[in-house]
Amino acid sequence: MRGPSAGILHLLFMVSFSLPVHGGELASSSDMRAIESFRAIQFVPGDSLPEDRILYGDSRGYIHILKRQPKGFSEEWRSRHLGAGIMGVFAQDIDGDERPELVTYTSGGRIFIFALKTHSLVWQSNENEFADITCMTVANADDDPQEELVFCADSHLFIYDGKSLFQEWKSQAEFRAQQILVGDVDGDGQKELILNTGWVLDARFHDVEWQSPDPFGDRIALLDVDSDGIPEVIGEFGGHFLKTFDIDLKSEKW
Length: 254
Prior knowledge:
The protein is mostly beta strands. Helix content is 6%, strand content 41%. The strands form five sheets. Strands 1-2-3-4 form a four-stranded antiparallel sheet, with no helix packed on it. The radius of gyration is 18 Å and the shape is globular. It starts with 5 loop residues before the first helix and ends with a strand.
């Protein structure tokens, strides 16, 4: 497996220390996808916009958009200050209008949504609505035409409709998570919410389907490792070792 290019490593170094990023020798579109394992940076290929873009958020509270140039990337736009460090960024069409939005959440408990093409602010959560948002994903949790914002804030799970941006659901019980995924992990044809802390909930009706006796990992991903047509939960612990969980069997696989 080929490792990250020097350009990617340079970019990640600059982002990590909140330094300005200028044009330079960066990798191809396929190489750029390697950075998407980081929450606060995302590569947007040219099929979504006329040219490739890189979006990233820094610890000072700014979103940056870099545009591909003939010899690298240069900064196209920087947001106003968003009040706190950027925890994650997403570039997805959340409302079904075939135009991608930029969704971000901050360490200060705020959510902001911008039009990716025009950079105009579309929506923001109210100040003091959330004290702490620990994780978020953007996914179609209920198979309606638009995506949802699924996140853990103030020890509760929330689902916001991507079109109306109204709250669809807030969990009554408390949950804690540092990562949340959406997918059908038990083969029942319905999607689940998977929390890295070991919880699995039905994404539509929100019932708890399984609470693992152990967490799934510090970081998790979904992958069908045994070719049974049902993805397993792969968990990474401490950056050193992996575990695999079979959710349909409600057990650790290996």
